[in-house]
Known about the structure:
Layout: H1 9-38, H2 52-70, H3 88-97, E1 130-135, H4 142-148, H5 153-164, E2 177-182, E3 194-202, E4 205-211, E5 217-223, E6 226-227, E7 231-236, H6 241-247, H7 252-263, E8 277-287, E9 292-303, E10 310-315, E11 320-323, E12 327-329, E13 342-344, E14 347-350, E15 357-360, E16 363-366, E17 372-374, E18 379-386, E19 392-397, E20 402-412, E21 419-420, E22 425-429, E23 439-446, E24 449-451, E25 461-463, H8 466-479, H9 495-501, H10 506-516
Antiparallel strand pairs: 1-2, 2-3, 3-4, 4-5, 6-8, 7-8, 8-9, 9-10, 10-11, 12-25, 13-16, 14-15, 16-23, 17-22, 18-19, 18-21, 19-20, 20-22, 20-23, 23-24
Helix pairs in contact: 4-5
Organism: Tsuneonella suprasediminis
GO molecular function, one term: metalloendopeptidase activity
Domain M23ase beta-sheet core: 358-453
Amino acid sequence: MMSAQIVPETSSAILRRSHNLAERFEAWRLKSSERLSRIDFAPNLAEAIGSRRWFRGLATFLGLSAASIAFWPGFAPLEAAPATRVNDSVRDEFRSQMIMPLALGGDSGRHMGATAAVTPLASAPERPQIELVATLAQGDSFGRMLQRAGIGSADAARVEALISRSVSLADIDPGTQVDITLGRRTAPNSPRPLSALDFRARFDLALSVQRGPDGNLSLERKPIRVDDTPLRIRGTVGSSLYRSMRAAGAPASAVQQYLKALGDQVNLDSAVRSTDTFDMIVDYRRAATGERQAGKLIYAGIDRAGSPKVQLMRWGSDGRFYEASGVGEQRAGLMRPVPGSIGSKYGPRRHPILGYVRMHGGMDFHASYGQPIVAVADARVASAGRAGGCGNAVKLQHAAGLATRYCHMSRMAVRAGQSVRRGQVIGYVGSTGLSTGPHLHYEMYRNGQRINPASVQYVTRAMLSGAQLQQFRSVLSQIKQVEAGAALAPLTPTASEARASEPVREIDKLDEAKKVG
């Protein structure tokens, strides 16, 4: 069954017009496509160069290049987000949360940044009391140290005057630490007053300066009980005398003194065995507060199987070591002026420069240029200067009519009339005078007559006698009774020291304050 649709006449005209427009646009599109397909916009520029088709392709290339350059993006950084406005409060908040060294201004772990709710104070309150430690530096004065610590000039001068009554300020050792307590300021920008000052003035004395209720500073001496029992150390020599003594607890300085004193009596390389027993006694001080202080070596001994014992004790103001018999001597003989080997001995020889045989009145030691030359024994400088074929020479006058001369020096380190000790540097090896190269020509004289230096075993002696010898032997017997290691035991505190070491309770402090009040 069919039905007819009735369309108004006006609607029919609109439909026909729209169909006509669509058909026209489609016809134009097809015609344009045909025309464009016939046009070659991108010909090969390598073919038909100079033709109309080639120039059309060049124009297309230039146009596309210009369009590409025109729309090319810039290299300016893109701003991802607007910059944060940082003021002082935001900056403080950042600083409080960052990880940064304190030396560069970091505040990590200290405080948070201030917010708008914080009200700034007109003036920050000060701590009522400051405790600090000041150290006396080398070459510094006690007063300057106090002023750098924050003590006013008036208080520093008063403290110096009080302390100088007990000890000399110049005798206070560098490195001494001073505990300082400063009180509250009396006025803004004024130095804090000194409340208390404590330090160890000597090994056996502590000083304390306190400000009393009347406002004046006063000094309190606190003597420290000290035990002077010397430290005795004994042990087996073993494979190394030095290492065995150090392992036994001997101070390094005392070991060096021991080896030097003993080396003047015996040959440490051949006369000491591993089974021998060393024995040394050192000055030692123990304080009741626990500090210990080692001093000089006062006794050096060694027990050798099948050989006499060596017992040496320091005696006299010059610090010389004496044997138990009261004799102080150097059995090792003369020191070598230089450590080099002997090149030419004493006797006739052909002179290397003059070319004929003549008497060689000394010994030549091989040595390098500038090597130190030492005195073979204690002496007085008889002459020092130019000496003909000897070049720069120094002559020393020893005891018992002996004299020595050292030739061909490059430089002299002593002058005539000067006293020198055994082992002291008197000059330096050279090649002055009649010399073919740097070496030392060493001569020896007895009563003005030249002798062979190798024939002399020079021994110096210092004898004790009478009351001095008796006193020496008495002191030696006393120190030899000291038990080994006895000085290492801690001191037994007295009743007063035990009470002073007990901690003070806060309630006791309140009771004391009430009594004072």
